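re: ur question from earlier - yeah i can do the single chain one, its not a big deal. heres the input i used so u can compare w yours
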Amino acid sequence: MSRLSGVICALALSAASAQGEAQKYDAASFPGFVVDEVVVPVPSEIFSVLDKLGEPNWKQELRGVKTPTTTDRYELSLIFGTVVAEGFVAVQAQDKKAVEDIGREVLNLAQSLGLTKAVRPHAQSILDAVEKNDWKAVRKEFDQTQATVRFEMERTRDIDHAQCVSLGGWLRGTASATSVVAKAYNADRAELLNQPMLVEHFSKSITGMSSEAKSNATVAAISKGLTTIRKAMDSQDGNITQEQVTTIRKTSEELLAQILKK
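and the output i got, formated as tokens:
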């Protein structure tokens, strides 16, 4: 297999459109960043591909953005990733109020992480674009917000926290994907969830974290949960069953609940 992650390979397969016709997704053009030969996809593109599977009711997938109070930077980083991913759900739903609320929460979290200066321009651009109903621009700014935070963390050698941002975002995106797939299950739609290489990448990332990071209760729970998710992706015929979708969804939801202290 090439350096493309399992999610990219899955997206390259045919997907059922709203009319039931198979569509092809060009894996080579899939945006993302490469870490240890694994492509971690840009969140907005994940939601774009979900749209190719039909016409999900994204308003049903929206959640509130009431985040827990904490000073733990690992937890703040995980929360930041989930909130940015929530922003993409709000964009898909074209819910102006939700996007505005999320944009403000992104800025609040950035302040807690000491990244206000880097994130403020993106947060303001998000609010400005929402006022203009420019959803493409909103999506772009959410992408750039996550990229900026990761860059600033990596620039200051804050690698463990940068990984937590990606983990939080991926878990929220996975919860959305499994919810959408479960509501109209078929093998082609479920193939979107067949991303073992990406799960293994995140597991290895946690293994390589500092002792302090790995001893964090939430990070430790995610590490255990990733093992469950990875096992749920095993299949002799390459198909992800409805039961496996349920397991992936349940586990990702449990981990999100722990991140958000719900």
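Residues 1-40 have pLDDT under 50 and may be disordered. not sure if urs matches, ping me
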